[in-house]
Amino acid sequence: QVHVVESGGGSVQAGGSLRLSCVASGSIFRIDNMGWYRQGPGKQRELAATITRSGSTNYADAVKGRFTISRDNDKNTMYLQMSSLQPEDTAVYYCKCEGVTFRLTTSAYWGQGTQVTVSS
What we know:
By secondary structure, the protein is mainly beta. Helix content is 0%, strand content 62%. It has no helices and eleven strands. Strands 2, 4, 5, 6, 9, 10 and 11 form a seven-stranded mixed β-sheet that branches. It is elongated, with a radius of gyration of 14 Å. The N and C termini lie far apart (41 Å).
């Protein structure tokens, strides 16, 4: 079993900041790529940011310059530092991990999501 849990969501005013965390646990041997996805009300789930195991990052245009993705490989943890938040950032944020289990099974794992609400 591999468990992925997000935390750090909440409600903030426009211009505020939040830091999301994602922790992977269980029978994970190695986490390769990780990413944050988000799904706003009535919208499709979209990519926000990704990070490789070596630290290479990519950002969606909508969050570039405001969000910073990082990870701690020793702790199997990924972070998303969100600054200058705007109402359009309101969404459920999901953590996705691509990894290998101790049984050498490669798969993608999703967390249950954490709600981020930004008010005007």
